[in-house]
Amino acid sequence: xxxxxxxxxxxxxxxxxxxxxxxxxxxxxxxxxxxxxxxxxxxxxxxxxxxxxxxxxxxxxxxxxxxxxxxxxxxxxxxxxxxxxxxxxxxxxxxxxxxxxxxxxxxxxxxxxxxxxxxxxxxxxxxxxxxxxxxxxxxxxxxxxxxxxxxxxxxxxxxxxxxxxxxxxxxxxxxxxxxxxxxxxxxxxxxxxxxxxxxxxxxxxxxxxx
Length: 210
What we know:
Blueprint lengths: L2 H12 L7 H19 L7 H13 L9 E5 L7 H7 L4 E6 L2 H13 L5 E5 L11 E6 L5 H8 L3 E11 L4 H5 L5 E9 L8 E8 L4
Parallel strand pairs: 1-2, 1-4, 2-3, 4-5
Antiparallel strand pairs: 5-7, 6-7
Helix pairs in contact: 1-2, 1-3, 2-3, 2-4
């Protein structure tokens, strides 16, 4: 089965509809990532079929909870989940934030090659970033803990926005240590096709000001 066929089958199992050319763009992104990986070690996953599952489908599994128009991918790394989400939702504006020059060079190249007009790449520490306006959705995939995410990136979320943290097993301990000023909206189980590992999405929100 080709990479395009694997992506198409996985997207169908997720129940997601993509626009014309999206599958080809996602395949091109993986090819670029595979090429850069040889020199820059951007991701530990090397096998193309595993990359479809662990990178693309894992990222796209949170699509139903993304709220726009402005979406921030915190600590974007190799562009996950931001680039797959941006390909799937061209009508939303995505910002890929990372402090590492090697990674932001790759992100800039990927955005140019894939012609993603709805994506901005920003090289900055999260703590130093001062966006205007704030974001409707702040997404993280590989951030340390929920408390760390809120401490550094919580202020980047609009008062009515959502903070979406991708996790493995249900993070009971982290949820017990949420700092004041934020509430738990929900935890959604994620069902990634052909992925054996447990995955979930934690939905946090700024607490309403009384």
